[in-house]
Amino acid sequence: MRDHSRTPVNLENLLTKALMHLLQSDEALPIRAYGTCLTSAIEEHSSNTKIPMEMIAPIALAAMASAAQNLYNVQRPGMAPSPISLNVILIAGSGEGKDASASPLLRPFHDFEQRTADAAREAKVELVVARRLWEMQRKAVEAKYRGKLGNRRIADRAERELRKLYLAHPSSAAIPKLLFNDATPLAVKQSLCLRWPSALLYSMEASSFFKGGLMRDMAFWNDLWGGAPLHLDRANDKERISVAAPRMSMILGIQPGMLERFMLRRGQEAEDSGLVNRFLWASPPPSSGYRWIDDSETKKKHLAAYARRCTQLLEDGAQLTEGVDDQRIPLTLSARAQIIFRDAFNVAQQVMLEGPYSQVSGFAAKLTEQAARVAAVLHVADGLDGPIANETFVRAIQIVRWHARQYLRLVSPENVHERRVQDAEKMRRRLQHLKMAGQPLVSLKDLQFLFLEDGWKSLRIERALSALTESGQVVAHPIGRTVRYCLLDRSTMAYGPEIS
C-alpha cells in the first residue's frame, strides 16, 4: 500500500490550472488521473472494443463508487461527512457503444447478486430447520412458566428468557438488489429500506428516466445523492421502516435529441431543483463507423483486477446491511489535501460570481464536493492506506474539471445562444433552398414537416424562427388566418441586430 501525502505541491499553479481555465471544451480526458486500477482497466477495455476512453472512464469511476459507497464516507474539512456516491450522464447517439462499454464494468455487480441469491437458496433448508427449533424453544419456555407468572421474580425471569429468545429469532439473509434499470421511485425506496441500503441505477437508454415516472420526483434523487434518510410507511400494518443513510449512484446514457427535448421541456425545473448539478456530464467523441474488428487478442488482465477490487468492496460492504453512517469508514484528507480542498472551495465561490460559472452557480457549488467524492473513489480503488493524499485530490480535481467543461459546453445557459444561432442558420439554409425551388412563403406547419426527420419539436422550431425574425432575415406575412414567413435576400434585408 502507498501513501502519497508527502508529495510537494505548488498550490498557486495547481488552482490556476485546475479551476480557472474553464472554457476549453476540447480538453483531452485526463486518463492518468484515474489511478493504477481504473486507468489500466479503462485503457484495456478501450483497446479491446475500440470504444473511446471518454465513454468508458465515467462508467468505471461511478461503478467503483457504487461498489465502495456502502463501506466508506469522505470527511471534508469543516463539513459533515459526505457519501462517495457518484452520478454520471453520457450523451451519445445510438450505436456509439454505450452498453458495450458498461457490460464488463458492471459484471462484478451481476455476479455478486447471483452468488448471494444462490447462497440464500442453499440456506433455505437450514433456515426452515432453525425456525422449527426456535418455535420448539418458544413453546418450551411458555410451558415452563405457565401458571407461575403471579410470582414477580419468576415473571421477570420469564420475560428475560423470552426477550433473549426473540432477539435470536432466525431470519433469512438479505439478498442484495444492487442494480436498477427501470423502476419507480417507490420501488427504489422499498428496496433500499427492505432489502439493501446501497444500489446503482443504470440505464444506457435513459428515456424512461427523463420522460417517465423516475423524473417525477426530482427531490427524491437529490436526497439520495446526499444520503438523506428514507422512510417507508406500510399501510397494511401501519409500520414505518427507515434506512438512516442510503446510498445510490447513477450511470445514465441518453441520445442528444432526447436530452435536447428534455432540456427544452423541463430543463429549467431540473436545474432549479439541483438535479442536473449533481451529475458529472460527458459527451464522448463519436466512434460509430471507426471501431474496426481486427485479429488482436482480447486482453483481460486489468479488467480482471478491476473486477476483483469491486467484488472485494461489495463483500466488505455486505457486512453493513443497515445503512447506518456510524458503521461506515470515514476517509479523511491529509493535511496538504485539506489545504487544496479549502483553496479550491474558495476559488469555486469566486467563479460563481463572474466568469463561465456565473450562470450555473448551483453546478459550481457542487464541484469541490464532487472532487472530494472522486478522490475517495480513487483512493479506495487503488487500496491506498491512511488519509487521502494531496496527489490523489489533485487528480480528482483534474477529472471533475474535465466533466465541468463538458457540462459548460453541453447544457449551460452560456451556450444556449450558440445553439440558437446554429439552429437559426440551419433553418435559414432550408428556407433558402425552398425559395430557390419556387416556394418563398412557408407556414409554421410547413416548417414542422420540414424538420420532422431532424426530430425538431415545435418549441425548437419557434425558437430558431424567432431568431431569424428578430435579426430581420425573415419577415412574417399574415395571409388570412395563417401567418406565412419569407426569407429576405441578404441584399434587401432590413437593418437590425445580427445573430452572432
Summarize the structure in words.
The structure is a single chain. The protein is of the alpha/beta class and 500 residues long. It is built from 18 helices and 13 strands. The protein has helices spanning 11-20, 35-49, 53-68, 98-122, 124-145, 152-167, 185-194, 207-211, 218-226, 256-273, 301-317, 335-351, 361-364, 367-381, 390-410, 416-436, 444-450, 458-470, and strands spanning 72-75, 82-83, 87-91, 179-180, 198-203, 230-234, 239-243, 247-254, 280-282, 329-332, 441-443, 474-479, 482-487. A hairpin with a 6-residue loop joins strand 1 (72-75) and strand 2 (82-83). The model is unreliable at 1-25 and 492-500 (pLDDT under 50).
